[in-house]
Amino acid sequence: MKKTLLITGGAGFIGSHVVRLFVNKYPDYKIVNLDLLTYAGNLENLKDVENAPNYVFERADICDAAAMTALFTQYNFDGVIHLAAESHVDRSITDPNAFIETNVMGTANLLNAARTLWKGNYEGKRFYHVSTDEVYGSLGETGFFLETTPYDPQSPYSASKAASDHLVRAYGNTYHLPFVITNCSNNYGPNQFPEKLIPLFINNIVNNKPLPVYGDGKYTRDWLYVVDHARAIDMVYHDGKDGETYNIGGFNEWQNIELIKLMCEKMDEKLGRRPGTSAQLLTYVKDRPGHDRRYAIDASKINKELGWAPSVTFEEGLSQTIDWYLGNDEWLNHVTSGDYQNYYSSQYAHR
Ligand code: NAD
Ligand code: DAU
């Protein structure tokens, strides 16, 4: 094998698309997927590659420093693409410590393991941290996040991601650890856990459940199809410059309420329901505390320097995503049984 790569969080939503891309595109790389399989991790996401000769799965906790050192020693990784994290803003409001532990301490453990194993011999090595646009805070009605926008995180989730970005840069500065960071906007697509807006609303529409729109519904997000994020990660891992940050976004802003109405229309069509049926499920509920008003990414740096641009239009991506959920009811039933019901009632019962 030419290289051995560690991908953390590979059983999650974005991670599974990254693992699939790397396993298929680079048969001469050994891809080690390290994942704790929390509620968000699901090996069903990777059924199509689980028997590939260049793929290995390791169940482990990034918060376990000794386990990280042992894995680095066993595999002698050339590179790390770090995605494992607690990723849902609402959960970070209920339980911030889980985010601080996994996102901050977990990242520190990986950095320490890389530094210890690589011993200053960084030839061909790279630590890639997959981060979020939420570290930049919230925008008003105009403007975009640039790579130079000062950090201003507003939720426990975004603060923990900002802290981990700072740690990665500090290890680069202090120990010369070669790193890259990307900050990406909202992803959507197959395999996303139905706690996030798009899959949660698809699932509720299918089941004729209320669609809980937070606040006035005029919050704005910039949506990117997950496969295009995975393509960007591949390009940045291979061609990005050490010590650089790249913003990744969809050039695709939607106010929540407009996006939800579009989803309702598409779902009516696909489910053969009378137009307007799903929209009757819209229910305005209590807002998310500290809710960021608007995110919008300026992705011109990655576009100009690495030639990346989204390849899937929102129209196509949303349609493919809905079709995927409608065609994978077994996947959806597995992830929405058990603990999901407790989560749903604790999050939404009092809104
Ligand atoms: P996800 O919640 O779907 O997946 C996270 C994965 O990490 C799961 O497989 C989970 O089992 C694993 N994990 C959690 N804690 C772990 C631990 N202690 N040890 C090992 N594994 C652990 O998340 P996602 O939406 O796929 O996001 C992946 C990464 O991308 C995160 O770092 C997130 O901050 C970042 N990101 C997400 C988005 C988005 O829109 N979803 C956008 C930008 C950046
Ligand atoms: O911007 C990147 C970030 O996008 C990632 O770093 C996070 O991991 C990811 O979860 C996502 O964060 P958001 O908070 O923007 O995503 P979420 O899908 O939770 O919410 C999108 C918008 O929809 C937000 O304005 C809140 C709103 N919303 C969400 C839910 C779950 C609702 O109105 N109702 C809901 O039930």
List keywords for this structure.
single chain; 351 residues; alpha/beta; Rossmann fold; 12 helices; binds nicotinamide-adenine-dinucleotide; binds 2'deoxy-thymidine-5'-diphospho-alpha-D-glucose
General description of the model:
The chain has 351 residues and is an alpha/beta fold. It has a domain at 3-191 and 223-252 and 290-311: NAD(P)-binding Rossmann-like Domain (Rossmann fold, 3-Layer(aba) Sandwich). It has helices spanning 13-25, 65-75, 89-94, 96-118, 156-175, 197-206, 226-239, 256-271, 300-306, 314-327, 329-335, 339-348; strands at 3-8, 29-35, 55-59, 79-82, 126-132, 179-184, 186-188, 211-214, 220-225, 244-248, 253-255, 282-285. The strands form 3 sheets. It has a 7-stranded parallel β-sheet, with helices on both faces. A 3-stranded mixed β-sheet has the order 7-9-11. Strand 5, helix 5 (156-175) and strand 6 (179-184) form a beta-alpha-beta unit. Nicotinamide-adenine-dinucleotide (NAD) is lined by residues 9, 11-15, 35-38, 40-41, 61-63, 83-87, 102, 106, 130, 132, 161, 184, 186-187, 193.
